[in-house]
Amino acid sequence: MKYIEFDANRKFDLTLLGRVTIDFNPVDYYMTLAESTTFKKYLGGSPANIAVGLSRLGKKCGFFARVSDDRFGDFVTGYFEKEGIDTSRIRRCEHGEKLGLTFTEILSETSSNILMYRNEIADLQLCVDDIDEEYIKQSKAILISGTALAQSPSREAALKALFLAKKTNTPIIFDIDYRPYNWVSNEDMGIYYAFAAKQADVILGSREEYDLTEQLIEPGRTDPQTAAYWHKQGAKIVVIKHGKEGSTAYTCDGQKFTIKPFPIKLLKGFGGGDGYASAFLYGLMEGWEVIDCLEFGSASASLLVASHSCADDMPGVEKVKKYIADCKQKYGEMIARA
Ligand SMILES: Nc1ncnc2c1ncn2[C@@H]1O[C@H](COP(=O)(O)OP(=O)(O)OP(=O)(O)O)[C@@H](O)[C@H]1O
Ligand SMILES: O=C(O)C[C@@H](O)[C@H](O)C(=O)CO
């Protein structure tokens, strides 16, 4: 069953809007960030990771972003170019704003945290002049990452992109993407997350992220209630993630599909969402059944939480398929299908 119509005549498979940052992950881990002394630098930022993930899976991505006008801006732009992600809409900040830096802490085999430096942040300088209708018309779909709604002028840029996507019949994917930094209040999230979700064809989020989105509408909903509400608003697919417990996709025709994580030795508890999103969306674009998209996303997510980085370790199609096949051979065909 196809829930989203992608226009095959458009140049980009997906154009993403949001932050491009840098991750510094500890080489000496199983200790606090204060104790770690050596870090490996990776491209970061959830939407940027998703773009890399889709590129590794053979998809062509466009991107709306502002980056710092310094060596870190050079690094992330050069990384995108090497991955084949279009950089024509990546613009440099003009007033010294800084690229977001995420320092990660891998405390133990089951606990990790991230510390994000986002003062005078470059990505929130994205502005309405950066968003053009022609570029969106060249995109089979657009993904808005929720943190882009945290502050102006990025907020208005994201709202303009939503408006132009609707105008050009471009499917909208809203990744709620809760990061507490840069939001003035939870109420702001309740306003802007909800507005974006009302425009979306596909919504991706954890239970916590839906709770933040629904706080001004009806707090305390169950997953089925959440899905039913957003389907009424026009969403075709509502994906609700529950970390290591797995995730469920609710489709607008009343079906639900649940997937569990594949068995893996966890290294870090983050990055799974980006691997999940890129692989799930890949399956959608390939016209797969939703359960197969979920399985592919879940497998990619498991590979990512077992890896030291996010972007650098985004897998190709064959790696994900082999991992799924190996797990099924070892644990049984229904290993992840609840
Ligand atoms: N401990 C784990 N073991 C195996 N898979 C996991 C684990 N944690 C997360 N995942 C996988 O990653 C997917 C997304 O993780 P999660 O639900 O935490 O979303 P998220 O908060 O968006 O992730 P991120 O931390 O990347 O932002 C899960 O649905 C699951 O498939
Ligand atoms: O999304 C962020 O800004 C943090 C990322 O850079 C980091 O890789 C992560 O947590 C991915 O989910």
TrEMBL record:
- Gene3D superfamilies reported in the protein's UniProt record: 3.40.1190.20, putative 5-dehydro-2- deoxygluconokinase
What SUPFAM superfamilies would the database entry show? Answer: Ribokinase-like
Swiss-Prot/TrEMBL keywords: ATP-binding, Kinase, Nucleotide-binding, Transferase
Query: Example GO molecular function term?
Result: 5-dehydro-2-deoxygluconokinase activity
Limits of the Carbohydrate kinase PfkB domain:
14-315
**Pathway(s) this gene product operates in, as recorded in its UniProt entry:** Polyol metabolism; myo-inositol degradation into acetyl-CoA; acetyl-CoA from myo-inositol: step 5/7
For this protein, the Enzyme Commission number is 2.7.1.92
What is the enzyme's class at the highest EC level?
A: transferase
Reactions catalysed, as given in the entry: 5-dehydro-2-deoxy-D-gluconate + ATP = 6-phospho-5-dehydro-2-deoxy-D-gluconate + ADP + H(+)
CDD domains, sorted? KdgK
Q: Which InterPro entries match?
A: DKG_kinase_firmi, Myo_inos_IolC, Myo_inos_IolC-like_sf, PfkB_Carbo_kinase, PfkB_dom, Ribokinase-like
Superkingdom of source: Bacteria
- Which family does the UniProt entry place this protein in? Belongs to the carbohydrate kinase PfkB family.
The record describes the protein's role as:
Catalyzes the phosphorylation of 5-dehydro-2-deoxy-D-gluconate (2-deoxy-5-keto-D-gluconate or DKG) to 6-phospho-5-dehydro-2-deoxy-D-gluconate (DKGP).
Q: Known HAMAP family for this protein?
A: IolC
For this entry, the protein name equals 5-dehydro-2-deoxygluconokinase
Q: Which gene encodes it?
A: iolC
